[in-house]
Design a protein that fits this description.
The protein is α+β, with helices and mostly antiparallel strands. The protein has two domains: 2-67 and 89-114; 122-233, Sandwich (Immunoglobulin-like), CATH 2.60.40. The protein has helices at 2-25, 35-69, 86-114, 222-233; strands spanning 122-129, 132-137, 143-145, 148-151, 156-162, 167-171, 176-180, 186-190, 196-202, 214-220. Strands 3-2-1-5-8 form a five-stranded mixed β-sheet. A five-stranded mixed β-sheet has the order 4-10-9-6-7. The longest helix is centred in the first third of the chain and has 35 residues, at 35-69. The protein is elongated and about 85 Å long. The termini are far apart.
């Protein structure tokens, strides 16, 4: 009995290590460039760890069972009748329930944090129209631009608007995605962490030109942002 448990654990550890290497060595998500995306990635990894543990346990039992208790090719006898195990049924019902509740609590906390506006957030209006984006800065006399420019380290509050059909604002490195719905204003918050250039993507099928609905996003220093605002005003 003890030997079998050791073998089962060893199989589970090997499978767990292999799956962990697949999860860690490959870049499955875009590189984060926002505080909000950092929190979202924490949820991904929390769920990934749970999935690796559960998968390793189930796969180990399957592999061990096939290895140890497979029947011989010439054995046509029926196996002994097996009745339910109340304790085991309670465990495999309670554990997933606890994990789902834990994931829900963590997700609710992240959604709450990502939905909080700071006192000095930059107001940006993102307007989607077949098949282009434009961005307005109400605090600076409704400066309007075809590219999105944000100061690094400062939260931006986006107000989404759509002129014609449903669009969806998405910068993969920001980790935040929000629909732009005709007649309705929606909001999302982004706090960039590093300077750089990125792509604004429409993530909602909006017509024949959907694939070309792109815009450039630049994260710059506060001084460069102030200079850019003055240039747009001029």
């Amino acid at each position: 009995m003890r030997k079998g448990i050791v073998q089962l654990v060893a199989i589970g550890v090997v499978i767990g290590i292999a799956v962990t290497l697949v999860a860690v060595l490959f870049q499955w998500l875009p590189t984060s460039n926002s505080e909000e995306f950092d929190r979202i990635q924490d949820i991904y990894w929390f769920a990934t760890v749970m999935s690796i543990v559960i998968f390793s346990l189930v796969a180990a039992v399957v592999v061990f069972s096939v290895w140890k208790w497979r029947v011989q090719p010439d054995d046509d006898a029926e196996g002994p009748p097996i009745h339910g195990n109340t304790g085991l049924e309670i465990v495999w019902t309670a554990v997933p329930a606890i994990l789902v509740i834990a994931l829900g609590i963590v997700s609710a906390f992240v959604l709450s944090e990502n939905g909080k506006a700071s006192d000095n957030s930059l107001q940006v209006t993102a307007i989607g129209q077949q098949f282009a984006w434009k961005f307005q800065y109400p605090e600076y006399g409704d400066v309007e631009s075809g590219e999105l420019v944000l100061p690094v380290g400062k939260q931006a509050q986006f107000t989404m608007e759509a002129v014609d059909v449903l669009h969806s604002f998405w910068v993969p490195q920001f980790g935040q995605k929000m629909d732009a719905v005709p007649g309705i204003e929606t909001h999302v918050y982004v706090t960039p962490k590093h300077v750089g250039e990125y792509a604004v993507v429409c993530a909602e099928l909006c017509g024949l030109g959907h694939a070309t609905m792109r815009a450039k996003a630049r994260v710059v220093t506060q001084a460069e942002f102030d200079k850019w605002i003055e240039e747009q005003r001029a």
